């Protein structure tokens, strides 16, 4: 997460403002479909995701059970659909908490400046030293495993990344004439920030939230894969990848592959959409005065 | 004629956004051994593109017609090692040394790289040579400079380093692409003087690109004036400046500020300079020329030999006759 | 330069101190008393409780406890595992080798594969470039546990080229057992490095100083190596270092998926069995390694750029 965020920010420097482009639209569609399925999916599934029937263990698809069964003879489609809900709600909480706290810290630091700003910056610098997954494991050990611990741990771990990005944008915004004009008019700092400054940062915040949603999804899945997040028998894609591993070794990879595939598909979609949302402002077009090869 | 450099009917087209974009149109000129030729024009006239065509450093998708010969060798036939050897023998002095010298390699690395690759010199021998030449171009403490990085040197010093790197190749022909435009006015004169002196000492031929007609006249034997990717007039520098034949040259000459003449307002050429791809039919200058006639819009005037050079204007004789009356 | 290094060293110490404090505090903010947390909900005989109280100075105030714990940790004493009743340091030492080998193996893959594909894409615009761009875009999004499962399914179960589980014995067998885990760990990082290599080498190739080198007749391969790649090395090494650092935490994932007896896998099982002393010890070791690698890479990348040194000096 540390490393990839840099590249993605860099890769965002693509030409073209405005529209999302065909790839961006595809990504948005994938996400929309996933959200709809997560919302109504569990009602669509004909089978109970937790009802096991060992007679059908690793059973192939049958009518009414189009994806077959897992190692305990539970319906895979039903588990994927219920898993979608936890797999999307978890990251949503992480992003909501992390973005709110990170933005609040960043805006206060940027508004006040001075010693408060430099102190916040150094604290964030130190917080970078804690990888999110490690913090989640520590929290799980202290408070016991579960989705709540994992969500809080990851939200805290993301704060420095979010706050650093937002701070630099907020500092730039704070020095713009319109903000100074509002100050001269005697508006309070809180009102200006909430009504003017933050709304102007919204495009940036939306793009960042989308990107961080993808990271949070992976990190939460990792924690669940360890058995420290969502607890079996509840269905979750990370849990399914882990519980399907014994199936992979026996030649029944369906459960792990389907759950893993869902994660990868959604993460790619969030990354693409996040990149597209952050596009448009910086256009980088090098003057290509170079012919490849000294032999050209 | 066969000089050190002959350009014959050179036409270059770049791959444009939607359609091919011509940047040079039927350019011909030649430089004799030891001769300095100035290439003068406004931005977008194709001066730099001419240099890039000579060293074959054109953008991908560029198409080149006509031919360029260096001492009789057609550059278009060269590939690989032969092309690199030819490039090494006609070094370019680029406009902005800050951008054109690798910022993370030392000055010594920059100067010795070509020597070590082309002449297989040892590092020590190459550094000795580099230090000597740095000395010649007026860089003090040459040894210490070799260990420094570009950001530690001023623009003027860095351009001297660029000139030194060109001289280290022991060329017969220098290509100078606005070598002083990026420098302070005071350093400009110094750098120009060093370059001019060393060129004359060594009897090097030079293609000197500038937008400054007077500067070209001061240091070049002949001057060519370009407009919209074509050559308008090529003549001995002194007479070109004193008695321009082409209306465009004349306009350029009067547009420059002068200390001798006191004017309330600088004369400007009406309209904006056109690039080759915007050029109208006929004479490229016909949209801005004060002496335009119907015939100027119909046929493109050829470069004709006249007096001490060549000029591409159908009305030269008439206009000269008028101005002599 | 020296001032910069001193500044970085101070920052490093502060960061390590704060991280160790976070790791330690976990014990005190846990619900219930520290003794219960250390015991992990087990009922212990009085003599064991006495051992714990003495070992962790539980009758001392909080900050004294922290200072003593940190002093011990610096000397290599990380406490006692409640489940195995052994010194945490010994338990860590016996497992660290696997994790270090895994991370070094994965780092080599990240650098070699990542830079090679990035360079290939940068130098061959068109089909090759598009393939690399698309492939890396997908691989970047593959979490290590999905990569692990996929590699096991294809290369261990399907093709039978590599073992699916375990660490193996001896050097070559060890390498064979670590190959799939290392690739699973390296996949996303290698794709990231490939993308950065591609963009930064390509940006360099379009810069004026590269044109100068070409115009001086320097062979293209030399221009790429001495100029484009050398200058691109600054962003590439920064990023590669960050990915390697992030692998320290992610190694737990592949160790767990491949049944390797490393630090990360042990951290997970200790967290699951509430062996708090082990969780603390391993967390401290991993965070220290993470911070150290990050600092080293940062300083190293700075050294690669001569422009920076002057900026600091003057």
UniProtKB/TrEMBL annotation, chain A:
UniProt cross-references to Pfam families, sorted A to Z: BPD_transp_1
Q: Which GO terms describe its biological process?
A: transmembrane transport
Question: Where is this gene product found?
Answer: Cell membrane
What GO terms fall under cellular component here? plasma membrane
Q: Does the keyword Transmembrane apply?
A: yes
Chain segments annotated as transmembrane: 20-40, 90-111, 123-143, 149-166, 204-228, 256-274
Identify this protein by name: Dipeptide ABC transporter permease DppC
From TrEMBL, chain B:
Membrane topology, as annotated, equals: Peripheral membrane protein
Q: Where in the cell is it found?
A: Cell membrane
Query: From which residue to which does the signal peptide run?
Result: none
Any one Pfam family here would be oligo_HPY
Is Cell membrane found in the keyword set? yes
GO process annotations (BP) = peptide transport
**SMART domains to which the protein is assigned, alphabetical:** AAA (SM00382)
Tell me if ATP-binding is a UniProt keyword of this record.
yes
The entry sums up its family as follows:
Belongs to the ABC transporter superfamily.
Q: Which NCBIfam families match?
A: oligo_HPY
What is the protein name stated in its UniProt record?
Peptide ABC transporter ATP-binding protein
* Underlying gene: oppD_3
């Amino acid at each position: 997460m540390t490393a990839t965020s840099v590249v993605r920010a860099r890769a965002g420097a693509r030409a073209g403002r405005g529209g999302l482009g065909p790839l961006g639209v595809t990504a948005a569609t994938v996400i929309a479909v996933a959200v709809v399925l997560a919302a109504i999916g569990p009602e669509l599934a004909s089978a109970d995701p937790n009802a096991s029937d060992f007679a059908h263990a690793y059973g192939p698809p049958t009518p009414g059970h189009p994806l077959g069964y897992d190692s305990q003879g539970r319906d895979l489609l039903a588990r994927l659909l219920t898993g979608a809900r936890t797999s999307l709600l978890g990251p949503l909480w992480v992003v909501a908490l992390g973005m709110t706290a990170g933005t609040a810290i960043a805006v206060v630091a940027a508004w006040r400046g001075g010693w408060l700003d430099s102190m916040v910056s150094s604290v964030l610098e130190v917080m970078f030293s804690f990888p999110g997954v490690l913090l989640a494991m520590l929290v799980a050990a202290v408070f016991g495993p579960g989705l709540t611990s994992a969500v809080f741990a990851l939200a805290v771990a993301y704060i420095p990344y979010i706050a650093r990005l937002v701070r630099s944008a907020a500092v730039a915004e704070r020095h713009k004439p319109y903000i100074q004009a509002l100050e001269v008019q005697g508006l309070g700092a809180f009102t200006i920030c909430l009504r003017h400054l933050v709304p102007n940062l919204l495009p940036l915040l939306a793009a960042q939230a989308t990107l961080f949603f993808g990271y949070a999804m992976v990190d939460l899945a990792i924690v669940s894969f360890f058995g420290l997040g969502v607890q079996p028998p509840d269905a979750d894609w990370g849990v399914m990848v882990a519980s399907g591993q014994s199936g992979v070794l026996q030649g029944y990879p369906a459960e792990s592959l389907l759950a893993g595939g869902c994660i990868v598909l959604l993460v790619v979609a969030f990354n693409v959409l996040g990149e597209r949302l952050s596009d448009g402002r910086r256009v980088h077009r090098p003057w290509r005065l170079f012919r490849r090869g000294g032999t050209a | 004629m066969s000089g050190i450099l002959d350009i014959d009917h050179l036409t270059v087209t770049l791959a444009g956004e939607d359609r091919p974009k011509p940047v040079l149109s039927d350019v011909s000129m030649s430089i004799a051994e030891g001769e300095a030729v100035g290439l003068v024009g406004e931005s977008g006239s194709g001066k730099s593109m001419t240099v890039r065509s000579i060293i074959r450093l054109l953008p991908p998708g560029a198409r080149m017609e006509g031919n360029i010969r260096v001492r009789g060798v057609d550059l278009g036939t060269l590939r690989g090692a032969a092309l690199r050897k030819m490039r090494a023998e006609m070094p370019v002095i680029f406009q902005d040394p800050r951008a054109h010298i690798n910022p993370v390699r030392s000055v010594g690395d920059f100067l010795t790289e070509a020597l070590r690759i082309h002449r297989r010199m040892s590092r020590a021998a190459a550094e000795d040579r580099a230090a000597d030449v740095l000395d010649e171009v007026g860089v003090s403490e040459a040894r210490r400079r070799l260990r420094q990085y570009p950001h530690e040197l001023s623009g003027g010093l860095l351009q001297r380093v660029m000139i030194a790197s060109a001289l280290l190749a022991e060329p017969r022909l220098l290509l100078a692409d606005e070598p002083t435009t990026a420098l302070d006015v005071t350093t400009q004169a110094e750098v120009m003087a060093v370059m001019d002196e060393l060129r004359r000492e060594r009897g090097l031929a030079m293609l000197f690109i500038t937008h400054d007609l007077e500067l070209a006249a001061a240091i070049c034997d002949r001057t060519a004036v370009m407009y919209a990717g074509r050559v308008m007039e090529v003549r001995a520098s002194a007479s070109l400046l004193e008695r321009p034949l082409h209306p465009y040259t004349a306009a350029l000459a009067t547009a420059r500020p002068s200390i001798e003449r006191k004017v309330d307002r600088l004369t400007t050429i009406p309209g904006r300079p056109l690039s080759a791809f915007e050029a109208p039919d006929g004479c490229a200058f016909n949209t801005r020329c004060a002496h335009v006639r119907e015939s100027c819009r119909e046929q493109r005037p050829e470069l004709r030999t006249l007096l001490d050079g060549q000029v591409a204007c159908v009305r030269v004789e008439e206009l000269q006759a008028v101005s002599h009356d | 330069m020296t001032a910069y290094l001193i500044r970085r060293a101070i920052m490093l110490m502060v960061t390590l101190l704060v991280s160790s404090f976070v790791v330690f505090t976990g014990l005190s903010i846990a619900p219930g008393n520290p003794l219960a947390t250390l015991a992990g909900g087990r009922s212990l005989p009085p003599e064991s409780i006495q051992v714990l109280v003495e070992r962790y100075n539980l009758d001392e105030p909080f900050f004294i406890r922290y200072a003593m714990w940190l002093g011990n940790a610096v000397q290599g004493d990380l406490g006692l595992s409640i489940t195995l009743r052994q010194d945490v340091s010994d338990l860590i030492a016996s497992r660290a080798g696997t994790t270090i080998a895994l991370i070094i193996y994965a780092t080599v893959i990240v650098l070699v594969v990542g830079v090679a594909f990035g360079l290939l894409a940068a130098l061959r615009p068109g089909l090759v470039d598009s393939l690399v761009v698309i492939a890396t875009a997908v691989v970047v999004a593959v979490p290590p546990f999905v990569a692990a499962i996929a590699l096991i399914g294809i290369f261990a179960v399907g093709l039978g080229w590599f073992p699916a589980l375990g660490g193996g014995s001896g050097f070559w067998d060890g390498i064979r057992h670590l190959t799939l885990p290392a690739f699973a760990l390296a996949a996303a990082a290698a794709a990231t490095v490939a993308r950065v290599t591609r963009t930064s080498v390509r940006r360099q190739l379009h810069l004026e100083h590269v044109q100068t080198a070409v115009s001086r007749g320097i062979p293209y391969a030399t221009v790429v190596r001495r100029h484009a790649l050398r200058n691109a090395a600054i962003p590439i090494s920064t990023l590669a270092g960050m990915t390697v650092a992030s692998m320290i935490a992610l190694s737990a994932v592949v160790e767990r998926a491949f049944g390797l007896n490393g630090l990360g896998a042990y951290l997970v099982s200790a967290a699951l069995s509430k062996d708090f002393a082990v969780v603390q010890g391993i967390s401290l070791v991993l965070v220290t390694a993470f911070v150290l690698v990050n600092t080293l890479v940062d300083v190293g990348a700075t050294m690669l750029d001569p422009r920076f040194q002057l900026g600091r000096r003057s």
